[in-house]
Every structure is written in C-alpha cells, then in structure tokens.
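REQUEST FORM: STRUCTURE PREDICTION
Request ID: SP-0412
Submitted by: Lab K.M.
Chain count: 1
Length (residues): 408
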Amino acid sequence: MCKTSLIHRMKNLMLPIALPLILASCGDEVEGRIDIDDSLPAQVTNVAYTSGPGEIYLSWDVPSSPSFMYNKVTYRNAKGEEVYRMFSKEAADANGRITATITGFATVDPVEFKIYACNVRYGSAEPQVISAVPGAPAFLAVANSLQAEPAYGGVRVKYANDTQATVYVNVDYSSKSDPSKSGSTSFVVNGNSNGSRVIVLSTGANEFINGEDAVLKLTARDSENNMADPVSAESYVKKVKLIDRSGWSVPGYTDDAYGPTPGFSSQEAGGEGGVPNGRVIAMFDGNENTFWHTAWKQSSSYPHFFVVDMGANHDVACISVRRRTNNNGTNVGHTIYTCPASGANGDDTNAWAWEDYGWSAFNRESNDHQFYGVNSTSSRYIKMYYAMTDKGGDFVMVSEFNAYEPAE
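STATUS: Completed
RESULT:
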C-alpha cells in the first residue's frame, strides 16, 4: 500500500472521533456562559467615624445595587504610603452597615479616607471621601510609663496602658561591665492593663545576665511598627541558681503511658527509641539529645500540657525551655502556671490553685534555652500549657526544662 493511501485512511479513521469532541466543546461554552452585571454600583452612604488610640473606626451603609460586591477603602498610613483595605458585601450587618477598625496611626493629624463601592470587575463610581482624626497613639502613653527595677534572674518592667489598644514593648539589653553580653526580647501589653513583666536577660545558648548590672533600652510600638523614642534605664539583676532536678517527677507518670495522665496530655512511649526518649521525664535528664514528644503512634492533638513536681516548695524566679535539637515542628507559644503544695488538692490537676503567669512566645527556630520570668513564691508545681493557638507544628517537643531560685 502506498504511503499517501495510508495517510488518507488514517485521517478518515480519526475524523469521527474528533468531531464530536469539538461540537461538544462549543455547545458547553454557549450553555455555560454567565452574564455578569458590570454596571457601576451606587456610592456608599451615611459615612461616619469615631476616634481611638492611633485608630479610626469607620462605618457606612453599603449600596443596594445588584452589581455591588465589595468596598475598597484607601488612605495614607503613618509612613505616607497609600494603602487600602477590602471589605466584602458579606461584612455588612443585618442593616446593611459595615464597621471597620483602621489602625497604625502615629500622630493626630487628619487622615483622608476614600470609600469605593465596586462591582465584580473592580469598577466603581466616584468614592465617598471623609477626613478623620485619630486619637493619640497608645504606644506614646505606654512609653511614658515604662520603668525597670531589679528582679531575681532579670528585671521587672513596669507599664501602664489605659487605652483599649494592644502595644508591644521591645527590650534591648546588655551587661554594663561587658557589653558583648547582650540580647533583646519583647512582650505584649494588652489594652486596659497596668502591671509588670519579669524579663530574663538571655545572652546565649544557656546563659543570661545574672548577679550584675544591666543597661536597658525600652521601646513601645504598635502593630504597624510605629514607635516612641526609646526609654533608657539601668537595673541590677538579682542572682539566681539552678534548682536541683534529681527529685523531680511528673504526677501519674509511667514509661508506657501514651496519655493522658494527671501530669501530661500525652507522650510518645513507643516510637522514639526507648526510655527516656519520647517520655516527659527526658526533659529533666540533662541530655539535650533526649526529649519529650507528644504522642504520634497513637493520635494526640492540641491542647497539650505537662506538670512538674519539684518535690518541695521553691521560690521559683524563672524557668527555661529548650526545643528538640534542630527540629522546628513544635509550638510557637505557651502559658506558664505555678502552684504551691497546699494548692494541689485532688487528682484533677486542672482544679489545683494555679497562678497564671500569662502567655509567652516561643522561638521554635532556635536551639537556645529560652528563659521566662516567673518570680513565684513557695511553688512546688510548674505547669506548661500549649493551646490550639500555640500550634506551630503538629507536636510539642522539649529537650530540656529547668527552673531557678534566688541565690542572694
């Protein structure tokens, strides 16, 4: 058979297969076509605002136009950059009104807001424009309140925040006698709060400024990183010493318990190479290569916790926590509690008389021992709690856990 004849026969064989596919495709395109209403929506109405600490609270009524999909709000931030926020029509309440909190203003200068009503194709008519004046930023007031005073194992930073806004305090520090011993940390000051925070001045893998004078720079800022001028201070760090862990235990602990028990939410009792690896007691053995690992061969999930029984009451000044070496699949925060022997009544540890020292961030990218001020009096038990919001990886993994008490 000649080559030309063979090609002709192959084309005839392919044609009945290809035609139906082409015809079906054209038919689907016609039937699936969607008509989009791209008419320009009406403007928003009844625009109003109130002032807050470095904030503006805008509100407006959305248009009833069928083509309306979302609002775009443009303005200039504290750096002079033009930015915007988007609000879907679903953000409106039952009365068709949207309320928006715009944060991050560093002065009380007027800010011009343009509110666009947009259709699905981003089209809009002219915006409604309003000039609004934010209140004095909260970080300025907090900065004026910052003070540092001596504490065991660190310094106590006092603050006052009489506004409803959240403020962040950065603490840069160094040893007065040896500036190479230095570090930095930060903590959150919630709205409408007056109090203090004990900051342990960590300077390395397992070191901190201890029993000497420290030089401090305290800076208050907002979530947009607008900040006040730093406050300089000096403070003595009262000396602390490591609490002997030889008598430490965990309530209800057994090697083969996956969990939960009174003393921990779970542990990996079978998949980490034998005791102590995976078990909660691995945190107290002085070996950074062993670790507690929440259960994975048997299912477990956040929240997690563990309870340490130090065997006797101690005036705990601070604690330190170290992640599993070179493994970042762990938590990003935790909450610390302490309880005296007299407060440990009953088998349910949740019902004990815990003192809450609040939430702290945990750097899951670091192999350093991370220090946290407690300054408790007469505590026998320490509880570490990991909420769902602390989840950074699927598990919690800790290689070492220590506690310190006053040494002077």
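NOTES: The two ends are 106 Å apart (CA to CA).
Reviewed by: T.R.
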